[in-house]
Each structure stands twice: as C-alpha cells, then as structure tokens.
Amino acid sequence: MLEIRNLHASVDGNEILKGIDLKVNKGEVHAIMGPNGSGKSTLAKVLAGHPSYEVTAGEVIFDGKNLLEMSPDERAREGVFMAFQYPVEIPGVSNAQFLRLAYNEKQKHLGAEELDPLEFKDLLKEKAKLVEMEASFMSRSVNEGFSGGEKKRNEILQMAVLDPRLSVLDETDSGLDIDALRIVAEGVNKLHDPNKAVILVTHYQRLLNYITPDFVHVLSAGRIVKEGGKELALELEEKGYDWLKAANGKSATVAPQAG
Amino acid sequence: MERARPWLLKLVNRESIMSTELVKETSRYEMAFRQARQDPEAGEPSWLQNLRENSFIEFERAGFPDIKQEEWKYTNVTPIAKADFAPVLVSNGTALTKDEGLKRFIYEEVRQSTLVFVNGMLRRDLSSLAALPDGVLVLDLREALRGDEYETTLREYLEHPALANGFAALNTALFTSGLFLKIPRDVNVETPIHLLFMGETRAENPPPAGFPRVLIVAEENSSATIVESYASPVDNAVYLTNAIVDISLADGARLEHYKIQRESMGAFHVATTRAELGPNSSYRTTTINFGAALSRHDIRVQMDHEGAECSVDGLYMVDGSQHTDTHSVIDHRQPHCTSHQLYKGILDGKSRAVFNGKVFVRHGAQQTDARQTNKNLLLSTDARVDTKPQLEIFADDVKCTHGAAVGQIDEDEKFYLESRGINPTLARNMLTYGFAEEVIEKIGIESIRRELDAAVLNRLQIQLQA
Fold first, then answer.
1. In this structure, what CATH number is given to the domain that contains residue A30?
2. What's the pLDDT at B19?
3. Which uninterrupted H or E stretch holds A155?
4. Counting Cβ atoms within 10 Å, is residue B276 exposed (0-12), middle (13-18) or buried (19+)?
5. What residues does B352 pair with on adjacent strands?
6. pTM for this one?
7. Chain A contact set for B418 (CB, 8 A)
8. Sign, CA torsion A83/A87/A91/A94
9. Which of A50, A92, A109 sits opposite B415 (nearest CB)?
C-alpha cells in the first residue's frame, strides 16, 4: 500500500529526514518511535503534504501513485489521513459544517452520494459514538475551547467520518489522560480492518498497550536505526533511547525544531 | 435633469471646472433649503428654524470634509461633493409596496414591527406596528416637532452638535421626516423594532439624497431591540444616505441595536450613531457593513454615569473598489463602566477600509473595564486597511486592553482543512466565513444571523449548511 524509498526532507534548509525506507502493507499497524527530534513527526507531516517541509530526495508510492506529486487535499481524498499532534482551532466554523464539507468533497471525488445536513447528522451521530463525543461538540467551532483529550478524540472522529485507507497518527497519545487514551485507542482499533493500514508515531510505549503494532521502527537523527516486532517497544520503554544511539555511534544532539 | 439656472451661471468661472462644480452643488442643497424654509405647512418652532439656518450656514462655511482633516484623512468624499444629489424633503410616490420590493428586506421576527422610510421619509402606509405594546411612542419626527409636548427632549438632541462636520450640519438643516421613538419606563418590548431605510431612485430624476434623523429614548428600566437596516431595491442605484441616530438610555435601560448596512453598491452612506448611557444601563450594538460604494460610520458612546456597560461590535466586508470607514469613540467619564469592542474586517479586490477607534478613560473614571480589538483579513494584495486603535487613559485604577491586527489567511488553519480533503479555494473561503462568524454569531435575532450568513457565503461562493 505504501512504500517510502530513500526519503530526504528538510525544513528551513535543515535536513531532518536523511533517507527513510519503509514499506507498509494492507492490514498492518506500524509504530514509528524515537526520541524528540528524531524526525518522526516530520515523517508524518511529509506524508500529509505540509507545505513547510521540502522533500529533497526519494519517493513515496501510495497504491501505485506518486504521493509526493499530490497536493494535501488530493492526498486526503485518495485516502491518506493524518491525525495532528496539535489539532488546529478553526473559529467560527462548526464541527458539523467542517466534517460534512470534508465528507462531501471525498464523496464527490469517489463519485459517491453527497449528504445534506440532515442525512449527515445521522452519520455523524453514529460515528461520534465511537469516540464517545456528545452532540454538543458538533455545533461548536472546530477544536475551539476543546481540551487536549477532546481535540484528539475529534481527530479520531474525523478519521471515522473520512474512512481513510492509510492513517498516520502523529503523537495522538501525547497529553491524554488514561481514559481519553483508552477511548482514542479503542476508536482506532474499531476502525481498523484488513484493507487499511495505520502508522502510529509515538514517543512512548503506552499507546502500544492498547493498539498492538505489527512492526516497530525506531528513528534517530532522521534515519531508521532499529526495527522489530512489538517487543521492541517494550525494550525501548525499559532502556530508553540512549542505548540505541550508543549502539549506532550517533551523536545525541538533535535539531530542536524537528518534532 | 435641471441643472444650473441662469442666475447660477453668472457665478460659473469658465477657467476653473472645480469651482464650477462646487458652486453648482452647494447651490442645489441651498435651493432645497430655501424652498423648505418657505413652506408654510412646515409649522416649525422658531428655535428649530434658527437651528436650521445656523446649520446651513455652518454647512456652507465648512463644506464637506476633506482629507486634510485628521478625521477624514483616509476617506475622500469628493465623489459625494461632486455628485448631483437632490435632497428628498417631501414624501413622493414610491414604487415600493409591502408585498413587492419590501418583503425581502423585512425579517421574519419584525413583520409586525417595521417602520419603513423611503429616502429618509417615514412611510406610515408601508409600515406595520401591530406587534408593538401599548405605550411605545412612535412618531414621525416632523409631527413630534410641531407641538411643544416633546420640545425639551427634542431640542436637547437636535441642538447638540453631534459631530462638527458638514454632513451632520446638512442633516440638521434639511431633514424633514425621521423618527421619535420612546420606550416608556419599565416596559419590556420583546419584539424587535425594525427601522428599514430604503434608497429608491428613479431613472428620470437626479440621484436622491435622504436625511434620516432618529431619536430613540429608552426610559428607566425599559428594554428593547432595534434593527436599523439600509437597503435598496436596485443593485447599483446611486444615492446618498446621510443619517443621524441619537440614542438615550435612562437609568437601568437596556437596548440591543443592530445596524445592517447593505446599501446598493453604487450608493454613498454617511451616518452617525450617538448613544448616551444612563446609570446601570446596557447598550449592545453590532454594525454590519456590506454595502455602498463609499460608507462612513461615526459611532460615539458616552458613559456619563456609573455602572453603564456597552458592547460595540462590527463587521465590514468589502470587495471591488468599495471603501468603508468606521470612526468610533467610546468615552468613559464615570467610574465602574464597561466597554467591549470587537470590529472585524474582510477586504478583497481593491477595497479599502479605515478603522479609527478611540477609547477615552477620563480623570476619575476608576474601575473602568475597556477592551478594544480590531482584526482585519486581507484576501487580496490590492486591498488596504488603515487601522488606528487609540486608548487615552487619565485614571489609574482601570483595566484596559486594545489591539489591532491585519493579516492573511492562517496557513496552519488552511493546511488543516486541506489535509481533510478540502480544496485550497474552499479552505480559504471557509476560514473567511469563520472569521466573519465571530461577529455574526453574537447577533440575537435568528433570521438576521441567517441572512448575514447567507450573504457572506454567497460572496464567498460556497455552499455550507448544518
């Protein structure tokens, strides 16, 4: 489904990703772990097409298409979804308006039926149950005044509505209390099926207690330095990231602006 | 069109087009003024006749404001000075009827509480007042001025130099209709009262100038909602609206006031709103400026008594070559008063906006809470805004903030929408809509909110419901 080959990317002229290779098949859950500044969030943003990140080399193939040639909205309509680490507040636009517009844009793209506000309300009600969100959230402005946990749940709600084939969750666990973490993780699990794939970008292992990855990749200084199964995450939890850096002989200093 | 008369031609200086124009224009107003003074039917008291004479002399002396004056630095009214506006001082026939022409401008909630003015003249025949409770006084200002029953009140407001400029002077000299509205003590008027000002033009006549003059008095502990709207049945009709609205709130009175300026795109709109707040009174106003080729709104809120509060919000949304100017003065003269102001602007095309917001906190006005924000969104590189928030504080125990911002669409917000499959144009338009919503969503009358939403969406060419 997704193949990343020798991906290099930079922001403001600083190279953050220095040659990433990654293959994700249908039905798989991949965890990308690594210390702060290793480039894992950059990888997520590059996949989503964030304009601040410049791809300097390499390629990304999504279902046989060159993902890097697509604009962010095209990628979304093709079925790529990124849950933001810091969801953006959109004052004055209600969650329901926003979600319906996004939903209909995708339906239009697929040649499927668009929904009017009433029809969409029913769909939204159904999806909202998945992340235990109350109806009152739908009439509120997108993310405005939401708590950290509510924002993350709202990301998963968007994922549920847009039904992407590839979901990239960028530090979705950060800032969540244990209940919100459970709700978010259960939502992701319920949405997963053999035709979809998930990439979890996370610093900590705790999210992986709820969502079991098939593969764990450890990023350090813009490169994948170690790969393994779910047990690798436990090992990292126990030993921290330093032993990897030592093992690879890399410098522990990292660019502060990279996430 | 009847232009310069023979006696005027003598004054024309053939070498100077400018002075020709000025002589002619001043004279058109003068002719109307002289004619009105000679009307034996007017029956105006002598103080009013004197006031009009003095106002007209003031207008002739000062003329229309020019850009050398600080308060008019960014707004050039030469197009108004040069146009052939014909003052409308009598109620002529109108093509507008309740069912045809007016219906779409009358909000659902005010079907039975709308006063219609055509070019500044109150039209009883087009108005509906059935929903107003007993005791609410609704009078054509002309009728109110005939007797001496309301002389003290009317005189106080009419003689008050609302604004020392040519437009205000011209209004005082020429208005012949208008409204005197009084909400009696302890009366709570639940139905909003709609003042609908229509600019109506006729192909065979020169472009008209209307001079709406309104005085609203809310007595002790009364409450009401006023909708003041400006519109035209013809999209590009050329006319001038020169309006003055005075508002007086007595002890504990509460007034919500919406001004919806959706004049024709060819129109000129110059208006003053002046509110005086009594002790513990509350004045909440929102002004929406969408229309007119050129508009200028002066809004002044004076807090001369303790415990008054006001919110003074606004939204201007302009495009093409539109020009809109808001000058606001919020004057804290006594302690324990609150003022909150949020003005937002959306500019596209080659449009231009001016926001000048003064907040005064006078000596001794302790415990003042004053907030002022002006935010502008520029959608085009050719649009321009001049904003000047100005806070002058002469008291030391106060809470005051102010700020102004001019910016473009936020790239992070745009990317967020795009990352959900929304195309860049639609994302930009949605964010613009959201920017406007912050002001619109506070409006307490649903059908106005809905109409403004639709107007914004229509301008942005997007379909958005739910």
1. 3.40.50.300
2. 42
3. helix A148-162
4. buried
5. B323, B384
6. 0.85
7. 49, 71-73, 76
8. positive
9. A50
